[in-house]
Task: structure prediction
Amino acid sequence: MSNQTYIPQPEAARILGRLIEFGYEPNPPPTLPPEWQNAYAAVCDVRTLGRHARSQAFGAAIERLPHAYEMYAEVAHSTPETEDRASQHRILHSAEDALKDPPQLDWCVQELLPQPSLTVIVGDPGSKKTYLAIDLAACVALGKPWLGRPVNQSPVLLIDEESGLLHLWGRLNASLHAHQAGWHTPLHFISLGGYDLRAPKDAEELTHRALSIDARLIVIDALAGVMGGDENSLASVQPALHHLRRMAEYCRAAVVVLHHTNRHGVFRGSSLISAAVDLMLSVESAPDDPLITLRTLKARQLAPLPFCARANFETAPDGRSRFWLSQTDDHPSLPDLGIKPTNVTTTVASALLDFLASSRQATVSEIFTYLDSVAQGTIRNVLQRLMVSGLVTRADGGPQGKKAVYKLSGKVAHIDNE
Result:
């Protein structure tokens, strides 16, 4: 037994713990103390043979060292739990538990993205939502403020199921060079992995990928790419959103999912999408306009005020493309009714709000009768958008199996008084 005091190595233990559990090998390998470097190399030699082989290799590499027990204990403590996680969420709690102070809320991006949380960012094609997500990912990985908001520096995992490796690589290259990032920046990405998050096996594998790098921001582009089914089908939407929620909880991460609008300017798919998320943001930007406007469509905790960003594209003297977002003094126009600014939708929205103001409440059939010159599909989409924006609510409380009755919310009166 050595008389020397053991000096803990939390970062080395974290790396070895994830290497043993997942077989993940950082490239290039990290700088580690000599005894940890030898153990790392021994585990890497068998990393494709399974967890049991990796654990045995680690034990054999350190068994003759003076502080083998301390090293083994530190790695065990740093290894994320990946088995029987569901049982951790089936604990029967009591009022005594609830009376204790809840855990402190951590932020990925201050006052915007909590950890854990599930956020959906909705936008039209060409609205720069992918560029926005990449800039967010780069800033979190580097620990740089994002649009003036402090971030919690942490590893990032970006899942691309839409752009393809060539396009994604080019955008990441432009962003990372603009932010002067180095090779050690903890940003990782997978392109066209074909994940179907309706399937528990795929959801578990993607969660393990995130845990293996300790990702605290997970960006998925786009929702349709990982859903593998009909966006309007509850059978497709519910399991995918459930697994995204569990991923956020298991990884203690902010999960940000990009999604598309339909031709009416409303997010595509089932209303369950807005019901299941903590935050839904809309992104508006014309393809030839550098100004990007973000508005809150739904917020479970804190609703950020509308804000803007400016997209910057340039070609450096060395011919390399660069891209980044910057703060701007521009402010979104008010009041914001959450309606895409087209003549049809704004007219229908105004008429619908006026009707509910005069009638106090109405069924869908009564709204159809009042707006008999408008297609019923358009009315349904505008009504859904008004509900997501919090301007219209269910007067009947929304029970299943009961005819829906709608009314204005208190938010409309607040806007009218501004």
Remarks:
- The chain is about 40% helix and 20% strand.
- The radius of gyration is 25 Å.
- The chain has a mean pLDDT of 84.
